[in-house]
Structure formats: structure tokens, C-alpha cells
Amino acid sequence: MLRYTLMRLGIFVGCLVAVWGLVYSGLAPRGLGDSNGLWIVLLALVISAPISFVVLRKERDRASERIVQRVDRVKANLEANRNQEDVADDAARAHGRAQGQTS
User: Fold this and answer.
1) Fewer CB within 10 Å: N-end or C-end of the chain?
2) Rounded to whole angstroms, how far apart are CA atoms 43 and 21?
3) How far apart are the C-alpha atoms of 94 and 84, rounded to whole Å?
């Protein structure tokens, strides 16, 4: 997941540098008034999103598989804990019933 995030950040930074160069060279329009920095960031986000979607498809699939495996493992651990609690509770109840019958 960290690898995917870093790769996505790298694509964004590359787009940010490219957009900044285009804006300051005059090939892309400047923002209105003092909004030039925000304009550059937003334009870089809009450009980097589809690039990341296409270029990082395999890495995104690998990351999602890892997440699914972790979620499945956590679910299995929770179920095992529930089963242990049920067994302990059943044993305690059986012991209580046995104590009640002998009295």
C-alpha cells in the first residue's frame, strides 16, 4: 500500500512540475489574481488522476489483494476469539449446572 501511495505521489509531483513549467512559460493559462498556486495544484490533480488510474492499475490490484487478505485474516481471528469465548462460557455454565445438581 505504501508503494502504491508513493508511486501515486510521484506521478502527482511530476504533473505538478510539468503544469508549473507550462503556466510560467505562458503555454497554460494563469489563475485569476492570487489563485495561481491553487490553479497549478488543481490542474496537476486533474491531470495526475487519470494517469495514475491507468498506469498504476497492476499496483492498485496488488494492494487491494493485500488488503483483502488482511481483512480475511482479521475476520478469522475474530471468529476464533468468539469461538474461544463460547467454549469458555459453555464450560462455565456446565460447571455451574453441575454444582447446582450436587447441592
Assistant:
1) C
2) 12
3) 15
